[in-house]
Design brief:
Blueprint lengths: L3 H8 L3 E5 L28 H14 L5 E6 L21 H6 L5 H14 L1 H12 L3 E5 L10 H11 L3 H4 L2 E4 L2 E4 L3 E4 L17 E3 L4 E3 L3 H8 L19 H12 L6 H21 L9 H12 L3 H8 L10 H7 L2 H25 L7 H17 L4 H5 L3 H11 L3 E4 L5 E6 L2 E5 L20 E7 L5 E9 L2 E4 L3 E2 L2 E2 L3 E2 L8
Helix pairs in contact: 2-5, 4-6, 8-10, 11-12, 14-15
């Protein structure tokens, strides 16, 4: 076990700042022909300066007292990182060269080094923050599952270049953290079947000759689909979950010149996503029966929890979407693709049989196909994405989380939607997002960004929480509050820039 004195320093906190969903990634060079290609990943939208300002503001808000900074998941976006080393010491497949490296330890180390080098100001700001006596807790989300690798954590500490005594002020937690005994903090992806880590206690699977982190379906879709479709922004669901009409209009407005064969890119990317999601679901988790309890105890130790809390929280996890291939096919539109393909095959077989008797023209084949189109359109309109329905944790789950951990406040992220409300005895907050999310491909209409949860001592000795936003160099409160209750409970991210 680590030094007990160091752990005691994490058990109490007067001031806690919580941010999530920064989605730090490698820099995307401007495309020589199509300047809108992954424009959201270009350096002009890096927010390293704002993050440095945020850390300075927390010092002012705490009046110089130590601040506990909780980086609550998806701080790094390994899935969107597509950089490839020039002379790699390991084999890189054709698929990796086009969609990003696999989640293997040595490749994940390259990705984190690339991300940190592209965000030098962010690293230096966090280093200065820690040198002033503050501490930082990294909670692993669904987009930075590769933080489970010990060497990746060491690369972050190496980049921060801290003295040995300050390194103990940085902690990496598997999926949750209890702050000051009154606040439960977790990313929240464990209640989203599309993005949940199947077993954060034992996160590894073994392929033929390599060990990988098990990546959920939603992240595989980002890797194999979105990474190859540069006009779709992965940080806002509305940018890639559309109606058929919206997809057609979007294609002719932005994609037709740059990616005229996008249909084939989508098809093979979707098939790869479906197959790998299902096969990874079947692969057994790498476990050591002799060390499971040690693993649970270490997670509890780093989280200020008990082993019993760890086991009970794990029981709240939802089933992964990869358990239901038909659901994944619908989300990827593969059900509609296979339906069209099946109808064409059947019609062609029937045509060959009829042609032997009546010597028909091939054009007769299109008559029954056109008759099939109204049925296909009806079926397509009846199928809708349910991603949004599962992304937000259920109220009963959040209440159970509070009961298990014996806290009065639960803070999560993942949904990118700012929240502050009290339901029953539990105060619920969502810290929102800092990700480069935009309502348009031109990246001219940013949605609610750079928000954080701030917890500070109250007049009666009980800590109180508020949600703030960094905007134009100033910190402003997102919700008007009264007695700890939020008058506005949830806020659409697109409204924050006008608030």
């Amino acid at each position: 076990m680590p030094d007990e004195n160091a752990n005691n320093a994490f058990k109490s906190a007067n001031y806690t700042a919580i941010v999530s969903d920064l989605h730090l990634c490698d820099e995307e060079p401007t495309h020589p022909k199509f300047d809108l290609w992954k424009k959201y990943k270009t350096r002009q939208f890096f927010f390293d300066e704002e993050f440095a300002l945020f850390l300075e503001k927390t010092q002012e808000m705490s009046e110089g007292s130590p601040v506990e900074l909780v980086l609550n998941g998806d701080i790094f976006d390994f899935d969107s990182c597509t950089s490839i080393p020039v002379q790699p010491p390991y084999y890189i497949s054709w698929l990796e060269r086009h969609r990003g490296l696999h989640p293997q330890e040595e490749k994940s180390c390259y990705k984190i080094k690339k991300i940190l080098s592209d965000h030098g100001k962010w690293v230096s700001a966090l280093r200065e923050f820690l040198l002033k006596g503050n501490r930082a807790i990294f909670i692993i989300g669904n987009h930075d599952l590769e933080l489970h690798f010990k060497r990746v954590q060491e690369e972050i500490l190496r980049a921060l270049d801290l003295p040995d005594e300050k390194k103990q002020h940085v902690r990496f937690n598997e999926w949750f953290y209890i702050s000051n005994g009154d606040t439960m903090i977790e990313h929240g992806n464990q209640y989203d079947p599309y993005c949940m880590a199947q077993d954060p206690i034992n996160p590894y699977i073994q392929r033929f000759n390599r060990i990988e982190v098990r990546v959920p379906f939603g992240n595989l879709a980002t890797k194999y689909l979105i990474n190859g479709m540069g006009f779709f922004n992965p940080h806002l669901d509305a940018n890639y979950i559309m109606t058929p009409k919206e997809y057609v209009l979007f294609f002719f407005k932005y994609i037709s010149r740059a990616q005229p064969f996008l249909l084939f890119t989508w098809l093979w990317g979707s098939i790869v996503t479906l197959v790998q999601s299902f096969l990874d679901r079947l692969r057994p988790t790498m476990t050591d029966p002799l060390s499971i309890e040690d693993r649970v105890e270490k997670i509890a130790y780093r989280s200020n929890a008990t082993p019993r809390m760890v086991r009970e929280l794990k029981e709240l996890f939802v089933a992964p979407a990869a358990s239901y291939p038909s659901l994944i096919m619908k989300e990827l539109w593969l059900d509609r693709a296979f339906l069209i393909l099946a109808v064409l095959v059947v019609l062609y077989v029937l045509f060959l049989q009829a042609d032997n008797i009546f010597n028909l023209s091939i054009w007769w084949l299109f008559i029954p196909f056109f008759l099939f189109i109204p049925f296909f359109l009806f079926y397509s309109r009846s199928v809708r994405s349910v991603v949004h329905e599962f992304k937000e944790p259920r109220e009963d789950i959040l209440n159970l989380t509070g009961m298990i951990t014996k806290v009065s406040r639960v803070v999560y992220g993942h949904t990118h939607i700012v929240r502050h409300e009290v339901i029953g005895a539990i105060e619920h907050l969502n810290s929102g997002t800092w990700s480069p999310a935009f309502l348009d491909v031109e990246c001219e209409r940013p949605i609610g960004q750079k928000t954080f949860v701030w917890i500070s001592p109250g007049e009666d000795g009980v800590r109180v929480s508020k949600v703030y936003q960094i905007r134009n160099g100033k910190v402003s409160e997102v919700f008007a509050t009264s007695g700890g209750r939020a008058d506005r409970q949830k806020q659409d991210p697109s409204e924050l820039d006008e608030a």
